[in-house]
Amino acid sequence: MIIVGERINATRKQxxxxxxxxxxxxxxxxxxxxIECGSDFLDLxxxxxxxxxxxxxxxxxxxxxxxxxxxxxALDSSNTGVIAECLPMVKNKPIMVNxxxxxxxxxxxxxxxxxxFPDVYIIALTMDDSGIPASWQKRVEIADILHNKLTETGIxxxxxxxxxxxxxxxxxxxAFINYLKSLRAIKTNHPATRSICGxxxxxFGLPKRKxxxxxxxxxxxxxxxxxxxxxxxxxxxxxxRCVTGVLTGxxxxxxxxxxxxxxxxx
Length: 266
Ligand code: THG
Hints:
Elements: E1 2-5, H1 13-21, H2 24-36, E2 41-44, H3 53-67, E3 72-76, H4 80-86, E4 96-101, H5 104-116, E5 121-125, H6 136-152, E6 160-163, H7 175-189, E7 194-198, H8 209-222, E8 227-230, H9 237-247, H10 255-262
Parallel strand pairs: 1-2, 1-8, 2-3, 3-4, 4-5, 5-6, 6-7, 7-8
Helix pairs in contact: 2-3, 3-4, 6-7, 8-9
The protein binds (6S)-5,6,7,8-tetrahydrofolate.
């Protein structure tokens, strides 16, 4: 299970404020706690809507790379120009790019860029010009379209991470079960590709979100989820990963579980 730490995201008020002040100490601590909790990648999103996203993201990349030279990064922006500007600055490979989708404009801008960076891990969202489909079958169809486009562009199948988009169960009771159906079906159609999701969306609007996130994580792992964008410092998250690894037969002789127990982490 690949963990992508989500805390450095400008949708969070604290992050927006710290970006405005270029508060290095704040961001170095945000990076450190996520690395210590076991993040494989740090997601960086500097989209404050103030018109200097590329400059802010570049500042974050340089800051974090100079303090944590081994950290791998996920560049998270809805603006392809921002990703194009910042990709060349990222030193550690692989670089995760968050994200492409099947909107016409997005494909036209993004695919030529990917030709120049064929080794990135690319997150592919199953949405198109009509938005996020309500039906899970339509999401699977969009994944098929993205699959053709991305492989034609020279992206290796194992570097494609499909994100079938987790949505809040508070607004649609079927949202998570439909997500799981599309996760499974996309994997069946394209077994060499991988899967990822932003898991905490599931609990939006409900109390005690961390409990919902933890069980959603276990269910998605059972359905084959391979990477997750999450707050790794949230109590229960790393425990859920470790325990579900045992229960789904991925932890040979429970060695990982036992060693994590011995380290006092569960
Ligand atoms: N898929 C992909 N990328 C994603 C998402 C996804 N990136 C963004 C998001 N979803 C995952 N990342 C975050 C980062 C921070 C928060 C939630 C998801 C967060 N949210 C607070 C909340 O929801 O209450 C915001 C409030 C605040 O702190 O100000 O912290 O699905 N590919």
